[in-house]
């Protein structure tokens, strides 16, 4: 997501180094040897996607922003597929987009190229505005989170190559020599060898909740190891956010960054004198447990924090924008869902 090497945030008189997505870190090397440079985004993409290499791609039907339908299952066996997960607020996505467009223009008849917008704090209006500045002629799909879960997407951009047999051949973050070598292979008709083929994971089934529904069977584990049942007969407020929202989006989406900070501070204040149990649920996109701990320390976050690494909680409550607050009453019923533009959190809590 973020190409920024280092981001510095001043909190009072303390200068804190904040981890930003896309940073390059230096790995330890033996004495006398040059240290290896590791791209954090590539490392996260590889660790999350390695187990899927050789597995069959998902058999799903996608709807483009133009209203057309793409049946991935119907493409398998005919030609390879190139899916690129991206976001309008993602700086390296923007930097890589010309190369992505070039692949579509030059190889679009040999490989199905599809831009998969992560659908995270993004919408069609933002995409259309983005296209005015950066040419994108390939089909564009806005994900609801389910496709990202199929490929264990943890960063943007993420490149997914599926060979002509419908097997996942490559998952990575960088548009580098390794990616182009993998692209050349699938374009050349290479498929996963029998020894590398894996069984596909069974589709994940879970309940999806909306305002008015009764929540059931959802447990979470906080950053300090406590297990919380979200449906336990107690009024709860779930604050959906991301540890990088207040810092990184301050430049690319300042209104969203300000909303994340406003909601966090207001939630912390309300939690002091409230019978409602509050918990902040952080997206696993560009975030791991250490990132969450760094955010907790840097911003002095007082709400209990939960990392939604797999995205199951965001999907269960159909959250695609941050910040979002879901209010649940003592009968485990969702009474209100407040999005980034809603400013009546205090009033909504008082009405519970």
Strand-helix topology:
Layout: E1 7-11, E2 14-18, E3 24-27, E4 36-39, H1 40-49, E5 61-63, E6 69-71, H2 72-75, E7 81-86, H3 91-107, E8 112-117, H4 124-133, E9 140-142, H5 146-150, E10 158-162, E11 168-172, H6 177-187, E12 219-221, E13 227-229, E14 236-241, H7 249-252, H8 254-272, E15 277-283, H9 289-299, E16 305-308, H10 312-316, E17 324-328, E18 334-338, H11 345-350
Parallel strand pairs: 7-8, 8-9, 14-15, 15-16
Antiparallel strand pairs: 1-2, 3-4, 5-6, 7-10, 10-11, 12-13, 14-17, 17-18
Description of the structure:
It is a single chain. With 352 residues, the chain is α/β, with parallel strands linked by helices. The chain folds into two domains: 7-196, Glutaredoxin (3-Layer(aba) Sandwich); 219-350, Glutaredoxin, CATH 3.40.30. The protein is 29% helix and 23% strand. It is built from eleven helices and 18 strands. The chain has helices at 40-49, 72-75, 91-107, 124-133, 146-150, 177-187, 249-252, 254-272, 289-299, 312-316, 345-350, and strands spanning 7-11, 14-18, 24-27, 36-39, 61-63, 69-71, 81-86, 112-117, 140-142, 158-162, 168-172, 219-221, 227-229, 236-241, 277-283, 305-308, 324-328, 334-338. The strands form six sheets. It has a five-stranded mixed sheet with strand order 9-8-7-10-11. A five-stranded mixed sheet has the order 16-15-14-17-18. The chain is elongated and about 65 Å long. The protein starts with 6 loop residues before the first strand and ends with a helix. The model is unreliable at 1-30 (pLDDT under 50).
């Amino acid at each position: 997501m973020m190409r920024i090497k280092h981001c510095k945030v001043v909190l009072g008189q303390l200068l804190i180094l904040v981890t930003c997505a896309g940073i390059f870190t230096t790995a330890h090397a033996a004495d006398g040897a040059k240290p290896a440079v590791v791209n954090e985004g590539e490392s996260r993409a590889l660790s999350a996607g390695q187990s899927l290499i050789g597995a069959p791609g998902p058999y799903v039907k996608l709807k483009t922003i133009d209203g057309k339908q793409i049946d991935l299952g119907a493409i398998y066996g005919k030609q390879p597929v190139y899916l690129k997960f991206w976001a309008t607020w993602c700086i390296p996505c923007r930097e890589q987009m010309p190369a992505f467009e070039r692949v579509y223009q030059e190889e679009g008849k040999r490989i199905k190229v599809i831009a998969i917008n992560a659908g995270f704090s993004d919408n069609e209006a933002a995409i259309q505005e983005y296209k005015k500045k950066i040419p994108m002629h390939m089909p564009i799909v806005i994900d609801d989170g389910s496709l990202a879960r199929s490929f264990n997407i943890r960063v943007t951009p993420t490149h997914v190559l599926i060979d002509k047999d419908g097997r996942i051949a490559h998952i990575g973050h960088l548009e580098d020599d390794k990616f182009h070598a993998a692209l050349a292979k699938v374009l050349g008709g290479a498929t996963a060898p029998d020894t590398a083929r894996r069984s596909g994971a069974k589709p994940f089934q879970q309940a999806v909740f909306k305002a008015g529904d009764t929540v059931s069977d959802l447990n979470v584990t906080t950053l300090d190891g406590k297990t919380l049942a979200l449906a336990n007969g107690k009024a709860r407020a779930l604050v959906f956010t991301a540890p990088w929202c207040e810092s990184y989006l301050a430049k690319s989406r300042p209104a969203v960054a300000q909303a994340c900070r406003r909601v966090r501070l207001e939630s912390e204040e309300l939690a002091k004198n409230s019978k409602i149990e509050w918990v902040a649920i952080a997206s696993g996109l560009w975030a791991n447990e250490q990132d969450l701990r760094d955010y907790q320390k840097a911003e002095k976050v007082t709400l209990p924090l939960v990392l939604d690494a797999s995205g199951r909680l965001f999907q269960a409550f159909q959250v695609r924008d941050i910040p979002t607050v879901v209010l649940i009453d003592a009968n485990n019923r969702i009474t209100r869902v407040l999005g980034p533009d809603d400013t009546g959190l205090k009033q909504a809590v008082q009405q519970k």
